[in-house]
C-alpha cells in the first residue's frame, strides 16, 4: 500500500517538471585555471621548437656530473618479528570450579580466567581470613598489587531475599474506602 502512495507522488506532474528543467538556461561553467590554457598553447610550433631545442650550456654541465651509486649494506633488524611473540609464554592450568565447561583450560601466568576471578572474589568475600590477598596471589600466580586492586574494586553481587513478614505487612494493608 505504501509503495502505491509514494509512486503516485513521485509520478505526479512528471512531464511538466521535466520540461521545466530542460527549458532552464544551462549554468555557465567555472573559469578554468591558466595552466589548463597551456595545453592549448602546446600545439603552437614555437613552443614545440623551444621544447625540442638543446641548450649547449646545460649539456656541458650535465656531462660534468658523475653519479656513482652503491647499495647500503643489508642490515638485519633485531625486532624483525615484532608481530610474533619472541618467547613462548608460560601457561598454567586453571583451577576449575563447578563451571568448568564454561572456562578455558590454560591461562598465561600472571592472568586469570573469568571463572577463576569470580571464584576467588567469592571465596574472599565468604572467608576473608583464609583467602587473603597474599594467598590468592600465590595460588593464582598473580602480583600482590594487582590482587589488592582486584579485591578493592571488584565485588561480586549478593542475592538478598526479603522476609515473608514484610510482604504480608504490605499486602495486609487494606485500601481506604471512598465515601
What is the terminal separation in angstroms? 54 Å
The backbone outline, from C-alpha atoms, is flat
Strand content: under 5%
- Count of individual helical segments: 9
Overall strand count = 2
Helix- and strand-based class? mainly alpha
Pattern of helices and strands: HHHHHEEHHHH
Give the overall pLDDT as a whole number.
Answer: 77
Contiguous runs where pLDDT drops below 50 for at least 5 residues: none
- The percent range for helix content is 40-55%
Spatial strand order of the main sheet: 1-2
| Computed CA radius of gyration, to the nearest angstrom | 42 Å
For the report, how would you describe the main beta sheet? 2 strands, antiparallel
Describe this entry's structure for a reader:
The chain is mostly helical. It has a domain at 91-153. Helix content is 47%, strand content 3%. It has helices at 2-11, 14-23, 34-41, 45-52, 56-64, 114-126, 133-140, 144-153, 164-172, and strands at residues 91-93, 106-108. A two-stranded antiparallel ribbon has the order 1-2. Helix 7 packs across helix 8. It is flat.
